[in-house]
Fold this protein.
Amino acid sequence: MKLHTSGIAQGFQKPIVARVTTVPSLPGVRKNTALVLPSLRARSDIRGYAAIIVQQRIEESIPCPVIHSVRDVDHLQSGHIVVLEPANGFIRTLYRPESPHNTLFATERCNSNCLMCSQPPIDKDDFAALTERNLKLIDLMSPAPEYLCVTGGEPTLLGDRLLTIMRKLRDTMPSTYVHMLTNGRRFAWSDFTTKFAAVCHPNLSVGIPLYSDYAPQHDYIVQARHAFDQTILGLHQLARHGVETEVRVVLHALTVPRLKYIADFICRNLTFVNHIAFMGMEHIGYAPRNMGELWIDPVDYQEELENSVTILTSFGIEVRIYNLQLCVLKRSLWKYSKQAISDWKNVYGDACKGCTVQEHCGGFFHWTTKVQSRGIHAITSI
Amino acid sequence: MARSFSLRTTFIPSRDSYQLLPFRFHRLDPQNEILVNECGEFIIAASGTVERVVRRKLVPDEELYATLKAKGFIYDDYSSPLTDVLASKYRTKFGFIYGSTKLHIFVVTLRCDHSCHYCQVSRQNVNKGEFDMSQEVATAAVNTMLKSPSRYITLELQGGEPLLAFDTIKYIVSIAKPGAVQLGKELDIVITSNFAYLTDDILNYCVKENIKLSTSLDGPEFIHNANRPRPGGDSYKLAVEGIKRARRALGAERVAALMTTTQLSLQHPTEIIDEYVRQSFHTIFLRPISPYGFAVKSSRKTGYEMNAFLNFYKLGLDYIIGKNRKGYNLVEIYTKILLQKILTPEGTGYVDLQSPSGAGLNVLVYNYDGDVYATDEARMLAEMQDHTFKLGNVLRHSRAQLFTSPAFVSLLQAACNQSLPGCSDCAFQPYCGSDPVYHHATQGDTFGHRATSGFCKRNMGVIEHLFSLLRKGDTELQNILWGWVTDRNLAEMRESLPQ
């Protein structure tokens, strides 16, 4: 799926967030709208648009922000929200109303540096710019989505800016289910957690990863000393304030050996969490770089996973499994398997041809098809 | 700016830096020992493990090191103040202390038509009114009850046979309910009756006032009637009919039954359990006899060794588990309470398995004459002229005076198993209680002597048995036990577990 394209920017200095239209609008409703045109003609009426996106090259100067010479515009559909970057002429799609999986990208920065991070952090100060963009984006999201993921980087690094975003989400789209992905460390500081909880977003769940019950191991995986203690304290503080939490465990060679202890730890220390999500590792970002240390074929940890799920479900804690194909997952675990609500997924390989359970299977991330379990095969009979 | 990764060695504690956090241990069998910490978390490990831990033979690379640290048995130079989490776990376990006195037992009359061998009160001629609670006493007792800081109050109306003093019950309910509403307390009312006098009027009243009913069911007819004689010898018939009528009026979940194990019962665990199933009960409490009242006097008829009870309990539990395997959901309550203490971070509000003991702190008994006792067993002793645990009288003493009485203070001194000889270093201490009243009654000493204590023998026996089931039981057994802990039946367990 294509989410960005580029051309030559002209006539604006600051990024423009706008809703795409492929058919000209009436003059009264052009504010915040970017018109996509194949070419600019003398009689084209471009007054009042936030920007125009033109496939052909434009030589003359025009009285409207424009990105021209954009080769690829087919993916830009009416109703999508894009950001137009003046510096490099990038047009990024930020929001697609038809997608069940839209995100607010809070920042590229992170205070952890997980060995298997799928979206490695970048150390640049993007807080102000991205917050401004996100606030505008929220304004333009209409109708409000059912689901919105707030992610990064580490969203809590935004501090008060995150509170502004949460308040805006609460006020403008209270029924949108907001899922925030964070390492939870910042919530160890009670003043921040108190302020965060005081927003009282009515439909919020905070997803926090836990990679071991043993602090040094978790800290090594996330590459930050005392991150474990901060995350656990953070989870407790969120619970104390009544914020719904989920714990996520990414499955790889460094988490699998203590999987049943992690389950036990959750039952003893984190009984308040709404559910536990076990996630197959994504082979993107840092993961390929650290494969030697991280790789374990999913078929080789099914026993550990089953034990861990048994401990959690015995205790009455709900379990979900993501990113693992049904053919590598033990039959007894199928009932926990969820197809992630992402349209980055559901790519199927050659080996999947003829599989009878494909419609229940999450398939692969499109980038995961490169590294595969030896257990991948078509299931022809159940 | 590209980031780099730190080596694993950046994140490990230094060798030999670990220190011990408080924990206790016990040998389960020649091959295995159990380590239990203050929060009730346990590790079962090969014999010799404790010695290795204490002699600092552990190294950070081994699995056991990580497990001990994660569960809070040791700390090291990598530890930061996660002891805060340990503290909140400890607070959770002892949360019942903040609850204050929740259960308030009112002995509305001593009169009773039954003459049970194990009865904990001297029964009186049914027509005598002098053993009924007066309105003056009832008013003062309700006032004392409502002064409890607890937001949740359970008012248990018992006797004798409380329905013989139904007017007293109505009076108590009529003042307790508005009083509770005024103070914003949630009031739960239970009448404990033998059902011999359960009229439709009384049932209608219970429906109207939202009152629960509890009765005694000792097993099948021949056991029940032998344990619970009454003129006509029809106690069983009256109880069973009463249960049916009460369920019809109130709904099954508002009618409970309790059994007491006598010498006769000991020979018939399966018949007793079958009776509970026949009567469609889904809980049963295999409860030993209390060594009080007539139970001690008539020890030839009812007394027995705790070993015999343990045998009965194990056979009974096995049979109950069998019922569950066949699809009938039946929970043994004592097992459930102990498993919750062993397997979950929660504390339980069960008075007999608490430390500090629930006597007084979590339960108070108001006798018909206004005398206040720390437990029902303490009242029994008083009926045998032993007033050791009489805290005072509602007509003369305020709540503060009751709780600062010499009787209560001496009780408290022996109320914490953390500091009782034989308990202070017992691995099972976090799961167990202290029962100063029991030890006073059986050993003449509130502190007690654990080596010869029936209380200790029972709980050690039961807890060891439960650990052995947890370790050696098949998957179905694990499911059943976990189902008890989490209020799910076997079918629901199968539904939610990976099977």
